[in-house]
Amino acid sequence: MSKHIPHTLVEIQYHCYQFNKMNRSSEAEYTHCSMAAIADIDKVVKEEIEVHEDPVLNQEVEVSVKQEWECNQCDKSFLSNGILIRHQRTHSGEKPYQCKECDKAFSRNYKLIIHQRTHSGEKPYQCKQCDKAFSRNDNLIIHQRTHSGEKRYQCKQCDKTFSLKHNLIVHQRTHTGEKPYECN
Hints:
By secondary structure, this protein is of the alpha+beta class. It has helices at 81-92, 109-120, 137-148, 165-176, and strands at 8-16, 21-24, 28-29, 48-54, 59-67, 69-70, 77-78, 97-98, 105-106, 125-126, 133-134, 153-154, 161-162. InterPro entries: Znf_C2H2_sf (IPR036236), Znf_C2H2_type (IPR013087).
């Protein structure tokens, strides 16, 4: 059964163990690998290596299969069809994950789960040094810098350091004179 697989690259390496040399064939596009019975190639996510015996050459042949799924709207390619489908939502604006509590919808399920915590009040990420809890792990990590004293954001004009990027941005306005907010 031959199945056309878009952008499947098969690279074959011939190992001659008699002379301990390796000759590498050039990459080419194939619809299937003639030397390997590769079923369900759709499930190939990362590079898979299979070793076969070639009866004609009487040498061991290493077949490397790398599949790329290309977006038809931009020139990005992906290692699985699922990742491609998720990417294509950036073009279509499709948001299949709908919040049941409000009218918000999301392109990714994990974003819906994080959003639902605003309704439930769930804060599963707890700081081990104080009683603060957070709905998102990245917010906990940022908070933990207040305990460690880590200040990774440095002003290039006066070398003052900050633990939060937002605080650096606000500070930089003292150098530029920028006043982004207007009084009514």
